[in-house]
Amino acid sequence: MKTANIRIITALAAVVLITIGFVTNIGIGTVSAIGWLDISILCPLGALSTMLASKMLVPRALIALIIVVVLIVLVGKAFCAWICPVPLLQRIRGFLSKNPAKQTASLSASETKALKSSSCSTAECSTTDCSSCAEKRGTIDSRHFILGGSLLSAVIFGFPVFCLVCPIGLTFASILLVIRLFGGGDMTWSIIVVPLLLAVEVIFFRKWCSKLCPLSAFMSILGKLNRTFRPTINDKTCLETAQGTDCGLCGQVCPEGIDPRHPERSASSMCECSKCRECVEVCPTKALKMPLLPIARSKVTAPPGKDGGERQELST
Protein backbone atom coordinates (compact mmCIF):
# COMPACT_ATOMS: atom_id res chain seq x y z
CA MET A 1 0.00 0.00 0.00
CA LYS A 2 1.28 3.46 -0.90
CA THR A 3 2.31 5.76 1.92
CA ALA A 4 -0.12 8.40 0.66
CA ASN A 5 -3.01 5.99 1.22
CA ILE A 6 -1.70 5.09 4.67
CA ARG A 7 -1.58 8.78 5.56
CA ILE A 8 -5.19 9.20 4.45
CA ILE A 9 -6.25 6.22 6.55
CA THR A 10 -4.35 7.55 9.57
CA ALA A 11 -5.89 11.01 9.37
CA LEU A 12 -9.33 9.54 8.73
CA ALA A 13 -8.93 7.15 11.68
CA ALA A 14 -8.15 10.12 13.94
CA VAL A 15 -11.30 11.90 12.75
CA VAL A 16 -13.42 8.75 13.23
CA LEU A 17 -12.00 8.12 16.70
CA ILE A 18 -12.75 11.66 17.82
CA THR A 19 -16.23 11.45 16.30
CA ILE A 20 -16.87 8.29 18.32
CA GLY A 21 -15.69 10.20 21.36
CA PHE A 22 -18.23 12.93 20.64
CA VAL A 23 -21.07 10.43 20.19
CA THR A 24 -20.24 8.37 23.28
CA ASN A 25 -19.23 11.40 25.33
CA ILE A 26 -16.13 9.65 26.69
CA GLY A 27 -14.17 12.89 26.77
CA ILE A 28 -11.13 12.15 24.61
CA GLY A 29 -11.17 15.65 23.14
CA THR A 30 -10.02 16.55 19.64
CA VAL A 31 -6.74 16.72 17.75
CA SER A 32 -6.42 20.31 19.04
CA ALA A 33 -6.92 19.20 22.65
CA ILE A 34 -6.70 15.44 22.92
CA GLY A 35 -6.62 13.75 26.29
CA TRP A 36 -8.52 11.89 28.95
CA LEU A 37 -10.42 13.50 31.84
CA ASP A 38 -8.06 16.02 33.48
CA ILE A 39 -5.08 15.06 31.31
CA SER A 40 -4.92 16.76 27.93
CA ILE A 41 -2.40 17.82 25.31
CA LEU A 42 -3.34 21.16 23.82
CA CYS A 43 -2.43 22.55 20.43
CA PRO A 44 0.90 24.35 21.03
CA LEU A 45 -0.34 27.52 19.37
CA GLY A 46 -3.57 27.39 21.37
CA ALA A 47 -1.69 26.78 24.63
CA LEU A 48 0.73 29.62 23.97
CA SER A 49 -2.07 31.98 22.89
CA THR A 50 -4.09 31.11 25.99
CA MET A 51 -1.22 32.03 28.30
CA LEU A 52 -0.52 35.25 26.42
CA ALA A 53 -4.21 36.14 26.48
CA SER A 54 -4.52 35.55 30.23
CA LYS A 55 -1.08 37.10 30.83
CA MET A 56 -0.22 34.32 33.22
CA LEU A 57 1.33 30.86 33.21
CA VAL A 58 -1.42 28.25 33.06
CA PRO A 59 0.07 24.99 34.43
CA ARG A 60 -1.98 22.70 32.18
CA ALA A 61 -1.24 24.76 29.09
CA LEU A 62 2.45 25.00 29.99
CA ILE A 63 2.78 21.24 30.50
CA ALA A 64 0.95 20.57 27.23
CA LEU A 65 3.19 23.04 25.42
CA ILE A 66 6.34 21.35 26.75
CA ILE A 67 5.06 17.89 25.74
CA VAL A 68 4.23 19.04 22.21
CA VAL A 69 7.56 20.85 21.84
CA VAL A 70 9.37 17.62 22.74
CA LEU A 71 7.25 15.68 20.22
CA ILE A 72 8.02 18.19 17.46
CA VAL A 73 11.75 17.97 18.21
CA LEU A 74 11.48 14.17 18.00
CA VAL A 75 9.35 13.80 14.85
CA GLY A 76 9.36 17.26 13.24
CA LYS A 77 6.24 18.24 11.29
CA ALA A 78 4.91 14.69 11.02
CA PHE A 79 1.55 15.92 12.34
CA CYS A 80 1.01 17.87 9.11
CA ALA A 81 1.26 14.80 6.88
CA TRP A 82 -0.14 12.07 9.11
CA ILE A 83 -2.75 13.52 11.50
CA CYS A 84 -3.93 16.98 10.41
CA PRO A 85 -7.41 16.84 8.80
CA VAL A 86 -6.74 19.78 6.45
CA PRO A 87 -4.87 17.74 3.77
CA LEU A 88 -7.70 15.20 3.99
CA LEU A 89 -10.27 17.93 3.29
CA GLN A 90 -8.14 19.22 0.42
CA ARG A 91 -8.19 15.77 -1.16
CA ILE A 92 -11.97 15.68 -0.85
CA ARG A 93 -12.09 19.07 -2.56
CA GLY A 94 -10.03 17.63 -5.41
CA PHE A 95 -12.33 14.64 -5.84
CA LEU A 96 -15.43 16.86 -5.90
CA SER A 97 -14.09 19.40 -8.40
CA LYS A 98 -14.69 18.84 -12.11
CA ASN A 99 -11.07 19.57 -12.96
CA PRO A 100 -9.20 18.71 -9.76
CA ALA A 101 -5.84 20.40 -9.54
CA LYS A 102 -3.12 17.82 -9.34
CA GLN A 103 -1.14 18.15 -6.14
CA THR A 104 2.61 17.86 -6.44
CA ALA A 105 2.74 15.17 -3.79
CA SER A 106 0.48 12.86 -5.80
CA LEU A 107 2.17 13.15 -9.17
CA SER A 108 3.45 10.00 -10.81
CA ALA A 109 7.02 9.67 -12.02
CA SER A 110 6.02 10.33 -15.64
CA GLU A 111 4.05 13.44 -14.65
CA THR A 112 6.91 14.87 -12.64
CA LYS A 113 9.27 14.35 -15.57
CA ALA A 114 6.93 16.43 -17.69
CA LEU A 115 7.21 19.24 -15.15
CA LYS A 116 11.00 19.28 -15.27
CA SER A 117 10.96 21.75 -18.13
CA SER A 118 9.38 24.38 -15.89
CA SER A 119 12.16 24.26 -13.29
CA CYS A 120 15.92 24.46 -13.33
CA SER A 121 17.81 21.24 -13.90
CA THR A 122 21.00 20.02 -12.31
CA ALA A 123 23.07 21.02 -15.32
CA GLU A 124 21.48 24.47 -15.67
CA CYS A 125 21.42 25.50 -12.03
CA SER A 126 24.20 26.83 -9.87
CA THR A 127 23.87 27.85 -6.27
CA THR A 128 24.98 31.39 -7.02
CA ASP A 129 23.56 32.58 -10.32
CA CYS A 130 20.31 30.68 -10.87
CA SER A 131 17.56 33.31 -10.82
CA SER A 132 14.87 30.71 -10.18
CA CYS A 133 16.59 29.35 -7.08
CA ALA A 134 17.51 32.82 -5.88
CA GLU A 135 13.87 33.84 -6.13
CA LYS A 136 12.83 30.81 -4.08
CA ARG A 137 15.41 31.49 -1.38
CA GLY A 138 14.42 35.14 -1.19
CA THR A 139 10.71 34.49 -0.73
CA ILE A 140 9.34 35.78 2.58
CA ASP A 141 7.48 33.13 4.56
CA SER A 142 4.05 34.62 5.19
CA ARG A 143 3.23 31.94 7.78
CA HIS A 144 5.61 33.50 10.30
CA PHE A 145 3.87 36.87 9.98
CA ILE A 146 0.54 35.16 10.63
CA LEU A 147 2.07 33.32 13.58
CA GLY A 148 3.24 36.62 15.06
CA GLY A 149 -0.14 38.19 14.35
CA SER A 150 -1.96 35.29 16.03
CA LEU A 151 0.08 35.65 19.21
CA LEU A 152 -0.16 39.44 19.19
CA SER A 153 -3.93 39.35 18.72
CA ALA A 154 -4.22 37.06 21.74
CA VAL A 155 -2.41 39.66 23.85
CA ILE A 156 -4.48 42.57 22.52
CA PHE A 157 -7.93 40.96 22.73
CA GLY A 158 -7.30 38.71 25.72
CA PHE A 159 -8.49 35.69 23.75
CA PRO A 160 -6.82 33.18 21.38
CA VAL A 161 -8.38 34.76 18.28
CA PHE A 162 -6.86 32.36 15.76
CA CYS A 163 -8.66 29.43 17.39
CA LEU A 164 -11.90 30.89 16.02
CA VAL A 165 -10.76 30.39 12.43
CA CYS A 166 -8.32 27.47 12.73
CA PRO A 167 -9.43 24.87 10.13
CA ILE A 168 -8.48 22.01 12.46
CA GLY A 169 -10.77 23.32 15.17
CA LEU A 170 -13.48 24.16 12.63
CA THR A 171 -13.38 20.59 11.30
CA PHE A 172 -14.19 19.04 14.64
CA ALA A 173 -16.60 21.83 15.55
CA SER A 174 -18.54 21.04 12.36
CA ILE A 175 -18.66 17.33 13.27
CA LEU A 176 -19.88 18.14 16.78
CA LEU A 177 -22.56 20.50 15.48
CA VAL A 178 -23.86 17.86 13.05
CA ILE A 179 -24.00 15.29 15.86
CA ARG A 180 -25.92 17.71 18.06
CA LEU A 181 -28.27 18.55 15.19
CA PHE A 182 -29.25 14.95 14.50
CA GLY A 183 -28.90 13.77 18.07
CA GLY A 184 -30.80 16.46 19.92
CA GLY A 185 -32.23 18.76 17.30
CA ASP A 186 -29.87 21.55 18.36
CA MET A 187 -30.36 23.93 15.42
CA THR A 188 -28.40 27.19 15.54
CA TRP A 189 -26.74 29.49 13.04
CA SER A 190 -23.45 27.81 13.96
CA ILE A 191 -24.44 24.73 11.93
CA ILE A 192 -24.28 26.94 8.84
CA VAL A 193 -21.56 29.45 9.72
CA VAL A 194 -18.88 27.03 10.98
CA PRO A 195 -18.92 24.57 8.04
CA LEU A 196 -19.21 27.48 5.61
CA LEU A 197 -16.14 29.16 7.10
CA LEU A 198 -14.25 25.87 6.91
CA ALA A 199 -15.29 25.38 3.27
CA VAL A 200 -14.12 28.89 2.39
CA GLU A 201 -10.70 28.26 3.92
CA VAL A 202 -10.25 24.89 2.20
CA ILE A 203 -11.62 25.97 -1.20
CA PHE A 204 -10.29 29.51 -1.57
CA PHE A 205 -7.09 29.24 0.46
CA ARG A 206 -5.67 26.33 -1.48
CA LYS A 207 -2.16 26.97 -0.14
CA TRP A 208 -3.26 27.24 3.47
CA CYS A 209 -0.61 24.81 4.74
CA SER A 210 2.35 26.34 2.91
CA LYS A 211 1.38 30.03 2.99
CA LEU A 212 -0.99 30.71 5.88
CA CYS A 213 -0.88 28.10 8.65
CA PRO A 214 0.76 29.56 11.78
CA LEU A 215 0.86 26.12 13.43
CA SER A 216 2.97 24.88 10.53
CA ALA A 217 5.26 27.88 11.02
CA PHE A 218 5.57 27.12 14.73
CA MET A 219 6.49 23.50 14.02
CA SER A 220 8.99 24.47 11.32
CA ILE A 221 10.84 26.73 13.78
CA LEU A 222 11.15 23.89 16.29
CA GLY A 223 11.79 21.47 13.42
CA LYS A 224 15.28 22.93 13.09
CA LEU A 225 16.15 20.84 16.14
CA ASN A 226 14.75 17.65 14.63
CA ARG A 227 17.23 15.06 13.37
CA THR A 228 15.08 11.93 13.03
CA PHE A 229 13.48 10.46 9.89
CA ARG A 230 15.24 12.90 7.58
CA PRO A 231 15.58 12.03 3.87
CA THR A 232 18.98 10.44 3.30
CA ILE A 233 20.35 9.67 -0.15
CA ASN A 234 22.56 6.72 -1.00
CA ASP A 235 24.93 8.27 -3.54
CA LYS A 236 26.02 4.85 -4.77
CA THR A 237 22.57 4.22 -6.24
CA CYS A 238 21.30 7.77 -6.87
CA LEU A 239 20.99 8.36 -10.62
CA GLU A 240 22.67 11.75 -10.43
CA THR A 241 25.79 10.70 -8.52
CA ALA A 242 26.09 7.11 -9.74
CA GLN A 243 25.31 7.65 -13.44
CA GLY A 244 25.42 11.41 -13.97
CA THR A 245 21.75 11.34 -15.01
CA ASP A 246 19.55 14.37 -14.36
CA CYS A 247 16.60 13.20 -12.28
CA GLY A 248 15.25 15.52 -9.58
CA LEU A 249 12.04 13.53 -8.98
CA CYS A 250 12.46 13.63 -5.20
CA GLY A 251 12.46 17.42 -5.25
CA GLN A 252 9.54 17.58 -7.67
CA VAL A 253 7.12 15.56 -5.55
CA CYS A 254 7.89 17.10 -2.17
CA PRO A 255 4.78 19.00 -0.99
CA GLU A 256 6.97 21.19 1.23
CA GLY A 257 9.25 22.33 -1.60
CA ILE A 258 12.36 20.50 -0.37
CA ASP A 259 14.93 19.06 -2.76
CA PRO A 260 16.69 16.28 -0.81
CA ARG A 261 19.35 15.96 -3.50
CA HIS A 262 20.16 19.70 -3.52
CA PRO A 263 18.77 21.29 -0.32
CA GLU A 264 20.62 24.53 -1.11
CA ARG A 265 18.35 25.00 -4.13
CA SER A 266 15.14 24.19 -2.28
CA ALA A 267 12.26 26.59 -1.79
CA SER A 268 12.15 25.31 1.81
CA SER A 269 14.71 24.09 4.31
CA MET A 270 14.80 20.58 5.75
CA CYS A 271 13.02 21.75 8.91
CA GLU A 272 9.82 21.84 6.82
CA CYS A 273 9.95 18.08 6.19
CA SER A 274 6.65 16.48 7.23
CA LYS A 275 7.94 12.88 6.92
CA CYS A 276 5.37 12.14 4.21
CA ARG A 277 7.82 9.80 2.40
CA GLU A 278 6.73 10.95 -1.07
CA CYS A 279 10.38 11.43 -2.06
CA VAL A 280 11.25 7.93 -0.85
CA GLU A 281 8.51 6.29 -2.92
CA VAL A 282 9.15 8.22 -6.15
CA CYS A 283 12.89 7.49 -6.28
CA PRO A 284 13.39 5.12 -9.27
CA THR A 285 16.48 3.45 -7.77
CA LYS A 286 15.29 3.42 -4.13
CA ALA A 287 18.28 5.55 -3.21
CA LEU A 288 16.28 7.55 -0.68
CA LYS A 289 15.60 6.35 2.84
CA MET A 290 14.25 7.91 6.02
CA PRO A 291 16.31 6.32 8.81
CA LEU A 292 15.36 6.84 12.44
CA LEU A 293 18.71 8.47 13.12
CA PRO A 294 21.11 10.29 10.76
CA ILE A 295 23.43 8.05 8.74
CA ALA A 296 26.93 9.17 7.81
CA ARG A 297 27.34 9.49 4.06
CA SER A 298 30.59 9.11 2.17
CA LYS A 299 31.99 11.19 -0.67
CA VAL A 300 31.14 9.95 -4.13
CA THR A 301 32.69 11.05 -7.41
CA ALA A 302 29.88 11.70 -9.87
CA PRO A 303 30.21 10.64 -13.53
CA PRO A 304 30.43 13.40 -16.14
CA GLY A 305 27.13 15.04 -17.07
CA LYS A 306 25.40 15.11 -20.42
CA ASP A 307 27.45 18.10 -21.50
CA GLY A 308 30.69 16.21 -20.99
CA GLY A 309 31.73 18.40 -18.10
CA GLU A 310 34.34 17.41 -15.56
CA ARG A 311 33.57 14.93 -12.85
CA GLN A 312 32.86 16.54 -9.54
CA GLU A 313 33.43 15.12 -6.08
CA LEU A 314 30.18 15.47 -4.19
CA SER A 315 30.40 15.87 -0.45
CA THR A 316 27.48 14.12 1.24
Précis, in short:
The chain has helices spanning 3-24, 44-54, 59-75, 78-82, 85-96, 109-115, 131-137, 142-157, 167-184, 190-204, 208-212, 214-222, 239-243, 249-253, 278-282, and strands at 29-30, 33-36, 39-42, 232-233, 288-289, 300-301, 313-314.
What this model shows, in words?
With 316 residues, the chain is mostly helical. It has a domain at 104-115 and 132-141 and 222-304: Alpha-Beta Plaits, CATH 3.30.70.20. Helices cover 50% and strands 6% of the residues. The protein has a three-stranded antiparallel beta sheet with strand order 1-2-3. Helix 8 (142-157) packs across helix 12 (214-222) and helix 9 (167-184) runs antiparallel to helix 10 (190-204). The longest helix has 22 residues, at 3-24. It is globular, with a radius of gyration of 22 Å. Residues 100-119, 121-129 and 305-316 have low confidence and may be disordered.
